[in-house]
Amino acid sequence: MDEIVNEPAVAYQKRHYTIEEYLEMEKASTVKHEYFQGEIFAMSGATFNHNLIFSNIFGPLFFKLKGSKCIPFGSDMRMNISENTLFTYPDISIYCNEIKHLSEDGDTILQPTVIIEILSPSTKNYDRGKKFNLYKDIPSLKEYIMIDSESVLVEAYYIDDEQNWVLHKHEEISDILNLVSMGFDVALTDIYNHISFSAAM
Description:
Elements: E1 10-12, H1 19-28, E2 33-36, E3 39-42, H2 48-65, E4 70-73, E5 78-80, E6 87-88, E7 92-96, E8 100-102, E9 105-110, E10 114-119, H3 124-128, H4 130-135, E11 143-148, E12 154-159, E13 165-170, E14 176-179, E15 184-187, H5 188-191
Parallel strand pairs: 5-9, 10-11
Antiparallel strand pairs: 1-3, 2-3, 4-7, 5-6, 7-10, 8-9, 11-12, 12-13, 14-15
């Protein structure tokens, strides 16, 4: 297990759990947990910068997608990848066309088109590596975007015509993030509006 997902920390270690047991425990829990191949993991809380970046990008996304076939969700929406069993809560996910629900649980949805994660010190290695590899199992996923909360850095991956993941990296505040599958841009000045970093940039 540690070779696949080692962040966040394991929440329950006494035995493996079924998906049904996980979903029942999650309904009663006041904090969110991930599930992967029978193990349950506690998710870390969000920093001030993390929450502010979420507000800065979710607002434009909601406005630009209004009236389209795509719907954005925040981090309270649980997602399942049936191809590898992962249950998780992406910071932002966009679902297009008809939204598919897990047959065992109407509060869990499947097949996102775009996933956006806001990187924190405790999760950035996981989000960039092992979690991205799990996300690649989603057949509908067209883009995976990671936004750093400690510096101006946006790593945007998208699927090209040859079905390869291509990286567009943005490290200048004057850059523009292009959401290829959505057909619109978001300025990094908007994403990082009101953000201050502890170290000088």
